[in-house]
Specification:
Blueprint lengths: L2 H20 L4 H21 L3 H23 L4 E5 L5 H9 L1 H7 L12 E7 L2 E12 L2 E9 L7 H9 L1 H6 L4 E4 L4 H9 L3 E5 L2 E7 L4
Parallel strand pairs: 4-5
Antiparallel strand pairs: 1-2, 2-3, 3-4, 5-7, 6-7
Helix pairs in contact: 1-2, 2-3
Length: about 210
């Protein structure tokens, strides 16, 4: 590969990453991908001796670093808000995100009378997610819905549920969380949250054992 071809490839990859970042719903992912793209574009600019391109993209990379630092170091406030059976806002929310729900939770049905837990997850007082679970067997809790709205899919909502709020599950006598997911993206999320595949009654579930702290 010649130097010219390398520089051309570098420019194309940098451009592609910047474009891809603009298509992302998650602000965190947008910032990370845009940081990589703008850094590569900055290097590209300096290598082809285009000082404006190099400096402008270096500045954009610095802005991304600034906001990413704030996102990772800023202490956020999480709170749960119980959902009543006839909650109109919940119905509107479920309808609004019905395509996402079909993708990640194809078997989900809102059956409030069966739920042991049903609440909104508030993040800095904005609705960031919905959680629902019911008694499964013995000391097991079956999660029927663990949904984060697109702008809050940076794993922080999940970490709140499965670390801070997990104390409540344990206090109520549950030490094992069980869920099912046919979606590979959601399966990756479950693995990141500490769930592992396990067979129960000849069916494959994702299981997380809670440890008292």
């Amino acid at each position: 590969m010649t130097t010219h071809q390398f520089l051309e490839l570098l420019g194309y990859i940098a451009s592609g990453l910047v474009v891809i970042s603009m298509l992302m719903n998650s602000i965190l992912k947008l910032r990370i991908v845009n940081l990589i793209g703008s850094t590569m574009f900055s290097i590209y600019g300096f290598l082809i001796h285009s000082i404006p391109v190099g400096f402008v993209n270096a500045f954009i990379a610095a802005i991304n670093i600034y906001y990413l630092t704030k996102m990772f170091t800023h202490k956020e406030f999480f709170k749960t808000l119980p959902i009543r059976g006839n909650n109109l806002y919940l119905k509107e929310l479920l309808n609004f995100y019905k395509n996402d729900l079909k993708k990640y939770f194809p078997d989900f049905k809102y059956e409030p009378e069966k739920n042991k837990y049903s609440f909104f997850i508030l993040r800095n007082m904005y609705v960031a997610g919905i959680f629902m679970a019911r008694h499964f067997k013995d000391n097991m809790l079956l999660i029927t819905l663990d949904f984060a709205t697109p702008q809050y899919r940076d794993f922080k909502v999940g970490k709140f549920i499965y670390t801070s709020y997990a104390k409540q599950f344990i206090s109520d006598g549950y030490n094992t969380l069980v869920t099912y997911s046919p979606n590979k993206v959601h399966q990756k999320y479950l693995h990141k949250m500490g769930f592992k595949k396990q067979t129960i009654d000849n069916k494959t579930f994702f299981v997380k054992h809670l440890q008292p702290r």
